[in-house]
Amino acid sequence: MNLTFATAGRVLAQLRADRRTIALIVVLPCLLIGLIAWMFEDNEMVLDRFGPVLVGIFPLIVMFLVTSVATLRERQSGTLERLMTTPIRKGDFVAGYALAFAVLSLLQAVVVVGWSVWLGMDVEGPLWLVFVVAVLVAILGCTLGLGASALARTEFQAVQMMPAIVLPQLITCGLLMPRDQMPEILEWLSRVLPLTYAVDAMQNLAAGEEWEGIQGSVGVIGLFIVGAVVLGVLTLRRRTA
Amino acid sequence: MAIRVAGLRVVRGGRTIISGLDVDVPAGSVVGLLGPSGSGKTTLMRAVVGVQDRVSGTVEVLGEPAGSPSLRRRVGYVTQDASVYTDLTVAQNLDYFAALAGVPSRGRKAAVAAAMSDVDLGGHEKQPVRTLSGGERSRVSLAAALVADPELLVLDEPTVGLDPVLRRDLWDTFRQLAASGKSLLVSSHVMDEATQCDRLLLLREGGLVADITPGALLEETGAPDAERAFLALIDAANAAGAEPPAREVRGRSTGGVHEPVAADRGPAGGVAPGTAATDGTREEDAR
């Protein structure tokens, strides 16, 4: 456990040294939400309905990208090989990354939600649950990124993993079309993809549901996180060719 | 014995890098690992620290099978390229590796300071590693291993790119570590460093050419310096390796030059005598 915290602290120190990345992670979603608010100036319903959903989607995309590139960098710089000769367990490594990025995504969620509320977003359900879902999605993105980086040999491949793994989820998550109106096969596909449940939870919060209304979705996201962590640990190899 | 290797065989990318290697590294000594590019030095070191896949044979480190979890606290590995976090400062790097090694947070500052002075980097604590020179970076990488105070240090070309003064100072540090009971396996291609070792292991094409003391190396080859002695041995091994019916010799003698080894080299794999001299540099470095 100590090594998890040591690793999370090290990753956070690396992030602190990279102010531009932090600025991008925090400012970019604000700009995008600002654009939407501006575009639908006359219809406040849009921001109320889609604001929370976007707050739930940004962390997945951003944390997926940041983690897969960061892990690939560890592989290529030789630091991962070196870590594998130290007492750190693979679970410490994965959990350390997830923890560090959860802190970053909490910062992102606080700023983005604060900004959205200032722009006039009105969440009917409890606001703190919006944070909870956003952080869980961030951890999910982080763990998925760890798994995906194991499949990528180069930076080019790592970046292409984003559209490969994130875009299908975006298309079927219910943002473009309500899921019950999709062709049956796509609806089934949406049920096995984690982002669906994040969007579902956020939509329910926007519609005024409380914890009881989202606990199922949150549970599923939790299961996906556990699965992705296990995958991330399994794809880390102490011995390489 | 700090390291005992018997019948080691490693396959990388479909190619047999090491075939049937027997090597001993006594505790409390500095053992130099020499050999041409692609001779399997890095692969052997990776097998010793337990990160090399597709290893068969016996590799025993500090009395336990290589790669055992309990060894990770006792063995320090420094890769050829500096493997530290370039976006962190020197102190942040060392503090992290000290934490991984289980140095309690109270003693960490002192451990970091000691490791920094061992590699002569005092005063650079707050500097991001990316702003350091190549030689300074490799010293940070070495310090990241020293900070864990391991019983066995496996160092892959630790003095590459360093000036003579620093090289001398580092070798003094290695000698002190050995004097305090630590064991070191150090690969190098700077031959005058070979004379600083207690023993030398000469590899060629994944086989052991010689396991010898520096003094005996000079004596047996009759060469005036370590570099020419090394060349004489490699040339002799290459010439012998080019003859098809060469017999594989797997001695465990502790004093002398082995008969040149032609490991797993059938007639089809033989090299025409005229090309033998370039044989050792034909392959990419196995890293």
From TrEMBL, chain A:
Bilayer topology: Multi-pass membrane protein
Keywords, comma-separated and alphabetical: Antibiotic resistance, Cell membrane, Membrane, Transmembrane, Transmembrane helix, Transport
InterPro entries, A to Z: ABC-2_transporter_component, ABC2_TM, ABC2_TM_bact-type, ABC_2_transport
Keyword hit for Membrane: yes
Residues of the ABC transmembrane type-2 domain: 12-239
Domain of life: Bacteria
Transmembrane parts of this sequence: 21-40, 52-72, 93-115, 127-151, 158-177, 214-236
Localisation per UniProt entry: Cell membrane
Similarity comment: family membership: Belongs to the ABC-2 integral membrane protein family.
Descriptive protein name: Transport permease protein
Species this chain originates from: Myceligenerans pegani
Lineage start: Bacteria, Bacillati, Actinomycetota, Actinomycetes, Micrococcales
